Amino acid sequence: MATDTKDRILDAAEQLFADLGFSTTSLRDITSEAGVNLASVNYHFGSKEALLTAVLARRIAPINELRLQRLDEVERAAGSMGPAMEDILRAFIAPPFEMKAACGDGDRKFVRLLGRVHVETNEEFRTAFIDQFMTVFSRFIEASQRVLPDIEPNEITARFWFIVGAMAHTMMWAQTAGLTDTARDPNEAIESLVQFGAAGLSAPMLQPVPVRSGNTGTGR
Amino acid sequence: MATDTKDRILDAAEQLFADLGFSTTSLRDITSEAGVNLASVNYHFGSKEALLTAVLARRIAPINELRLQRLDEVERAAGSMGPAMEDILRAFIAPPFEMKAACGDGDRKFVRLLGRVHVETNEEFRTAFIDQFMTVFSRFIEASQRVLPDIEPNEITARFWFIVGAMAHTMMWAQTAGLTDTARDPNEAIESLVQFGAAGLSAPMLQPVPVRSGNTGTGR
DNA sequence: GTCTATATGCGGATAGAC
DNA sequence: GTCTATCCGCATATAGAC
Q1: What are the chain A neighbours of B74 within 8 Å (beta carbons)?
Q2: How far is CA A137 from the centre of its chain?
Q3: Contacts of B78 (CB under 8 A, 6+ apart)
Q4: What residue of A is the nearest CA neighbor of B76?
Q5: Distance set, CA B157 to CA A87, A179, B121, B139, B160 (Å)
Q6: What tens digit of pLDDT does each residue of B156-173 get?
Q7: How far is the CA of A27 from the C1' of C10 (A)?
Q8: Within 10 Å of residue B35's Cβ, how many Cβ atoms?
Q9: SS3 A182
Q10: The pLDDT of residue A122
């Protein structure tokens, strides 16, 4: 547990935002959980929204840096023949799941907050978060396009977006009892996502088929 | 536009909950949008939470019924040789996207609310929603297991959960400019998800590999 | 059924003593 | 830097006239 006030607030806010969401969590919740005075939040951070930004910034920058660094490694190691789609995906997916190991004592609660952020549409979250995410996202789209030249670029973007959704959903619900295997090894979750995503991204393009019940036009 | 108070409230609440989220939207927002009196919400529904339940109930039951009905059709049409995975998935994915057509004048805003509900962890949402969803979910897992006997049951569940996440994410962001192709034909989105999901679900099982940067153990 | 007026509480934020 | 006390607005919900 952190010892100084600022970190105690950050830790408590991270946990509560992850569990309850941003607007549902009050500053009083946070300060009582952290064992600090109510006024200290505004003293140290200025506002509730600024606190959220600080909570996110503490974790997100390292994650995105790690993603880009791993992507570089993967591409360099593969040389001219190009990397495997699985390795590109692993560079994208693994870092947030590895937060705990990567950040020392980083609370794994943050993983759920990250899942939540991927899904919140509030203006506050967007400005604090989406911009830098899109930079990383674009880099991975480019890398995927080189590996999958037969898939239309728009389709790759759509499919990669599906993977982001699957990842966010997994992080959101990973610790909810009764819905998923809570005791599951994080590495297994990563590998499942990687295999699933690589197969989905590589699926051959089809001619559009009419969408109606009972349709069997896709064949198999 | 609905003419009587109760429906006007439901429509406005549906739209605002979808755009802003449940806790962020006030009853004042809803009544002023609906052009009705503030007190009428409590008169007709009893509380804000009960209003949310009513908003969800109006759409969810038909969607889940349609899903199960289509799954039955697909399995019956396929006979003893079993249906294609794509057709099972389409039975699951298409109904929420088709809300507008299926419910007459149903507001397509609900699709975003549905995406949000899949992701909200609040107690209110869960009790109102998760239970009946899990029933449908289980039915589709069973059908998938019959089609994919080589994939471990736990893995099928995990992968189908990925698809739910991809679907929810897509619905959430479908109308957000700048992130996805907003003008995209819903049928195309459905087909992309179906092809992506079928390929991902069918991916062969691999031996676990150590997860580290630069890992190329997946081969290709 | 619909309105006005209001009860009651919690929210974020701040002033000012220490 | 930390605390107490408080401002002030907005939230849900309800009482009671019409």
Answers
A1: 213-214, 216
A2: 11
A3: A216, B84, B87
A4: A214
A5: 24, 10, 20, 11, 5
A6: 999 999 999 999 999 888
A7: 11
A8: 11
A9: coil
A10: 67
CA distance B99 to A70: 42
Minimal Cβ distance to B192: which of A83, A158, A172 = A158
Q: pTM to 2 decimals?
A: 0.91
Tokens of B18: 């979808």
Nearest CA in chain B to A74: B214
Number of residues that this document lists for chain A: 220
User: Does nucleic acid strand D have an atom less than 7 angstroms from the CB of A132?
Assistant: no
Between A77 and B111, where is the model more confident?
A: A77
Contact positions of strand C to protein Cβ (< 7 A)? 1-5, 10-16
DSSP at B104: T
Over the stretch A70-107, which tens digit does the pLDDT of each residue have?
Answer: 999 999 999 999 999 999 999 999 999 887 655 554 55
pLDDT one-digit tens code per residue, A106-155 = 556 788 888 888 777 666 667 667 778 899 999 999 999 999 999 999 99
User: What DSSP character marks residue A183?
Assistant: T
- What does the pLDDT look like over A143-201, one tens digit per residue? 999 999 999 999 999 999 999 999 999 988 876 656 666 557 778 899 999 999 999 99
The structure tokens 């069997």 sit at A216
Give me the CA B27–C1' D15 separation in Å, rounded. 19
Distance between the alpha carbon (CA) of A20 and the C1' atom of C13, Å = 22
Distances in whole angstroms, Cα of residue B35 to Cα of each of B12, B13, B56:
9, 12, 21
Of B21, B18, B17, the C-alpha closest to B175 is: B18
Q: Which residues of A43-59 are buried (b: 16+ CB within 10 A; e: fewer)?
A: ebbeebbebbbbbbebb
Environment class of residue A89 by beta-carbon count within 10 Å: exposed (0-12), middle (13-18) or buried (19+)?
buried
Distance (Å) from the C-alpha of residue B95 to the closest C-alpha of chain A? 10
